[in-house]
Amino acid sequence: xxxxxxxxxxxxxxxxxxxxxxxxxxxxxxxxxxxxxxxxxxxxxxxxxxxxxxxxxxxxxxxxxxxxxxxxxxxxxxxxxxxxxxxxxxxxxxxxxxxxxxxxxxxxxxxxxxxxxxxxxxxxxxxxxxxxxxxxxxxxxxxxxxxxxxxxxxxxxxxxxxxxxxxxxxxxxxxxxxxxxxxxxx
Length: 186
Prior knowledge:
This protein is of the alpha+beta class. It has one domain. It is 16% helix and 31% strand. It has helices at 26-34, 77-87, 163-171, and strands at 8-13, 19-22, 49-52, 54-55, 58-59, 73-75, 91-95, 104-108, 111-112, 121-124, 130-135, 148-151, 160-162, 177-183. A five-stranded mixed β-sheet has the order 9-12-13-1-14. A hairpin with an 8-residue loop joins β7 and β8. The longest helix has 11 residues, at 77-87. The protein is globular and about 45 Å long.
C-alpha cells in the first residue's frame, strides 16, 4: 500500500438541486467529446447552456454546481472562490454561455492509467471498450499526489476526486453535489 493515499470519489447530483443542460442537444455531444482531458482553453468556444430550476417534483434549490454529469462538472463562481487553489493544477475552467448565470465547465487535464481492469468489475461494449464500471480497483501508485483525475480506459471518464477535495467542498458549505466513494486504499 502507498502511504498517505486518500479514498477516491465520483461526484453526483444532490437531490432537489438545479440541473444544467445545453440549449441545443448537439451541445451534449460537444461537451462529451471535448471534456476529455486534453487542453481546450486556446480553442474553446462557449457552449450555450440553460439552468433547469424545476422538474416534475417542483422547484429545485440553487446549486453551486448545477448538475450535468460526472464527466463535466459545471461550477458557479462560488466554487472557484473556494476551490481554485485545490483544482487549478488539475484542469482548466472553460466558460459557458448562459443568460441567467455565470457558469464554467471544469475540464480535468490529469488523465491517468489507474484502473486495474482485472480486479475491477467493468462493462464493455461490443468493440471491447469500457463503458461502465460497477466496482473500481485502482493502481494506487498511478494516483499518488493527484487529487482530481480522469482515466484513460474510459472514453467518457467520470471525474474522480480524493477525500481532500470532498472535505474542502463540504467545509466550504458548497451545495449541489454528493460524493460516492468508489475506492479506498485500505
